[in-house]
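dude i think i finally got it to work??
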Amino acid sequence: MIRKAVTYILLVGAVLMASCSNTKHLPAGDSLFTGGKINLKDKTVGKRTRKVLVEDMENAVRPRPNSSFLGIPFKLTLYNLGGSTTKKKGVKAWFHKIGEPPVLGSKVDMAFNKAVLENMLQNRGFFYPSVKPTLVVKHKRSKAVFDVTTGPQYTIRKVFFERDSSNVSKEIFNSKDHTLLDSGQSYNLTLVKAERDRIDKFLKEEGYYSFKSDYILVRADTGVGNHQVDLYVNLKFDEMPQEGYTAYTIDNVYVYPNYRLDGAAEDTSKEVAVEYKTYKIVDPEHKFNPRIFPENLEFAKGDIYNRTDQNVSLSRLINLGVFKYVKNSFRESPVSDTMLDVYYFLTPFPKYSIRFVVGGLTQNDNRAGSQVSVSWLDKNTFKGAELLQFKVNGGFEAQYSGAVSRPNIYNFGAEADLSFPRFEVPFFNIGSYSSYTPKTILKALYNYEFQSNLLRITSYTAAYGYDWKESSRKEHQLYPFNLTYVKTDTLGDPSRLSLLYGNLVFNGIILGPTYEFTYNSQSGPLKTNNFYFDGLIDFSGNILGIAQKADYRSNPQSLFGAQYAQYMKIQSDFRYYLKLTSATTLASRLFTGVGHPYGNSFQLPNIKQYFSGGNSSLRGFPSRLVGPGTFNESNTSGTNHYIETLGDMKLEFSTEVRTNIYKFINGAIFYDAGNIWLYNDNPLFPGGKFTSNFYKELAVDIGAGLRFDFKILILRLDLGIPIREPWLPENNRWVINQINFGSSSWRKQNMILNIAIGYPF
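look at this
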């Protein structure tokens, strides 16, 4: 341990010493540019504004200095380790490749930077600033120093919306109550540009298809005194063409659903168009049912043009999933110069496609396996943009090492999905109210799993439900009908199996609705703070069980000859992402799940229960073997028979700092805490029931990892170490003081390597 520590200290010292000599290889008479420094000489602006101004102006100085971490320019140091080599191969060339050449003081144009800073200040209302530049050179290092006197910041006194006799001018005047420019605000050019964009967006909703924000002029009068400015909003009458004054209505809507995108001129022939409602469909081969276009297009004959309807229509057509390219154009109608003909050119995907996927998997308890799937997809099955998919898959999971023997697992499955691009609700006609096409989904699944010398599980599932997006960030899934039948055959000694693996055995029916809501703020422009939430409500056998007064002890009930599960289950998955720097993110997750079995059930069906431990759970513990509660088979009996332990409740928290190390290589340090519990006391799992002391029963681990981002996939390597083991006596559960990297037996028992695809959350 001491030798390793000394080696590490020497290595860090070598890097630091190398960084101190970063000026050694500079050209004669030149210097290493270290950035800009702003000295605000006056105090006419507030403390907060001063801080923002200084930060923004220093960031605006060009060129940017060499990047650094904790004040050390590591990339520059690596570049200098390559010396003055001109070779393209070898160690020194590699240092040049991964490093960063020095930014030289001779490349700093002080006059240019002075003009940039003056312009920045003027755009923020400091109309008469003074900027005095000086390049300070000391010990072969240079810094661009700017002494800045901002002068007073001008504020808006009044905003005038000038109008003439044109309708467009009147529309702009009528929108002034929604202006972004208010009296008392500091003048800011960015805000003025935002106001022009606001007016443009407003007019686009009122039919002004050809209008542009460039047609708006905002004049500033700085001569009103008292460091104030009056703003005048009007039109650029000399530059604005006649069509900019026109509010258009829609004449004909043409749809070409089998348009070829091969570079040829657009075929806009109309003689073969079939009129359906108010739409003209050009589909001579009748590949599509015309009904899908009124369902997804917002424009109809006689409507006033607006951008919202245009964007919604395009979004829905794309989200149908049957068109590879979607393009539309507007052309002035030959009938009137105030009307537009709308054209939609749609290039469909090939009707049939086959997908073959081969994958590998690993568990952190010495198990590995492979999975193969083949899917066949029919797009536009019944000519109404329906999607029909058949999928078969199979795989295995086997143990390749370890002291405890686990059974090999083999599985095979088949699935059929049929989705309709609308709400198919009996006796009701529900249209879409968002930019996304809703889907009605029918599912049928079959799955067979064989665990050698242990279990044989066969399940059948049928489901009917709806999937729709309220917006780009909000999605709903409602399955009012869900039916699963599970049949489990035990192999080998039945008494031993029921004793050791009873938590894995379920025979019966799961029947009930599910509802899932997902919110993802990461859809769209990324912000500093981003959130993800997924909530699920899952019921089974509730009404039936209550009606039959079912009780698994005294009055068990069945459906179609099989006992059915009765439970209520609610879970949530909340994630928070804080961007610390451009390359570093703090990611956290809180998962909670509560299942309440009652009536006809003693516990949740095993396929509905929770587990803890593994690649994307508690990464410092064996896969699926944490809990429930304080239960641990090895600690309790000294044996290791269980394949997995399950629970009706789950609480888990994880947080990790992710940062980019080099190009496609990312690193992370993480912390996980959590456990599972049973709702009812089970003598097979002593200490497994949920109690008010649950917080004392959390397992905790820490670790570090590497993530290789190959764009098409992310390979993740996480090394986890347990620091709290809840099955130990209450006062001895923290085991962080037992960490001993120098002990091979400790490393073998406690260091768990997780190999996975994708991030854990």
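The first helix runs from residue 2 to 20.
im so relieved honestly
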